[in-house]
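Consider the tokenized backbone below.
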């Protein structure tokens, strides 16, 4: 009798037979851009570049007492959360829903710092966060992938909560389920077996060299791939990089998570470094396709992206994407 591993079955799932060549389409508001006709225009442009997946990141607000609040319901879903799914599918593309907690204005410095020191606030967080995720899963049930949490790694010790949330989400949507763990917190996550893939916010430092070459950046990504391969094998799950991006900065390879554009009068050098870092990453993805199923590049915008950090819409970066993501040949 042949026994197939879970990872083998998932890797041959129709949604992941092709590599995930994805881009996150972000927003400059609460997401209303995702429901406009211009979102479809961006999909057309991205598809020509070889993109076959997109991701959007619906928001809810986290409060200091643990309450998670949002302004929509499954009974009356806003078009900016349902229409993107339709527009992607009309073009033969797949879409991932990746919920983000808006922490700015709260006592939390970032999503990874969200945790509570008393049971009342913890319970309030769990109940309201669960309600939000299940609401999103209901109104976006036709999506192809769904992330049950993004960078909430300080709550990862609540394994039972995350296991239960994954199980409940499965009763609502057939989408592949994942969790987006920060690059330095992967070892804190113990609930991967409740999910279909390991999601990684891939802001790994690549090199300490001030002027790194492509070879040095590729060596950095080779080390990262070795680490991620161990995680994939341990949990018998494929890996998808839920965010992969570099800011236009002279320190992009040392602090990929930083949104500060440090270039002074060396802007062209910073833009070239951004593109070279991405080139090293995409070449690694191509080599490791057996278990590293792809990525979502961070980030793209509907309309004018001038002045935005992590902006992918530059001549150098779009050329790198096109060069690496040629149209995928159907078997």
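A designed sequence for it:
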């Amino acid at each position: 009798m042949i026994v197939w591993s879970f990872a083998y079955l998932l890797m041959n799932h129709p949604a992941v037979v092709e590599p995930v060549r994805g881009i996150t389409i972000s927003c400059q508001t609460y997401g209303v851009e995702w429901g406009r006709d211009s979102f479809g225009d961006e999909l057309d442009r991205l598809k020509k570049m070889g993109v076959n997946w997109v991701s959007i990141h619906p928001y809810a607000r986290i409060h200091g007492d643990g309450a998670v609040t949002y302004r929509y319901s499954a009974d009356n879903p806003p078009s900016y959360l349902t229409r993107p799914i339709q527009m992607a599918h009309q073009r033969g593309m797949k879409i991932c829903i990746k919920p983000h907690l808006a922490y700015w204005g709260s006592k939390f410095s970032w999503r990874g710092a969200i945790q509570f020191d008393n049971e009342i606030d913890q319970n309030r967080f769990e109940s309201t966060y669960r309600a939000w995720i299940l609401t999103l899963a209901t109104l976006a049930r036709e999506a192809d992938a769904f992330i049950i949490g993004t960078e909430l790694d300080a709550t990862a010790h609540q394994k039972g909560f995350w296991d239960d949330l994954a199980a409940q989400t499965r009763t609502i949507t057939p989408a592949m389920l994942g969790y987006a763990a920060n690059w330095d917190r992967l070892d804190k996550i113990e609930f991967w077996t409740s999910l279909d893939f390991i999601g990684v916010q891939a802001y790994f430092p690549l090199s300490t060299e001030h002027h790194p070459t492509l070879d040095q950046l590729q060596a950095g990504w080779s080390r990262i791939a070795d680490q991620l391969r161990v995680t994939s094998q341990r949990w018998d799950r494929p890996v998808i990089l839920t965010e992969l991006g570099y800011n236009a900065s002279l320190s992009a390879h040392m602090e990929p998570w930083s949104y500060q554009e440090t270039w002074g009068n060396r802007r062209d050098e910073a833009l070239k470094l951004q593109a070279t870092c991405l080139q090293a990453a995409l070449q690694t993805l191509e080599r490791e396709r057996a278990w590293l199923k792809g990525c979502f590049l961070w980030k793209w915008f509907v309309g004018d992206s001038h002045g935005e950090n992590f902006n992918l819409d530059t001549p150098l970066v779009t050329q790198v994407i096109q060069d690496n993501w040629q149209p995928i040949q159907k078997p």
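The longest strand covers residues 292-300.
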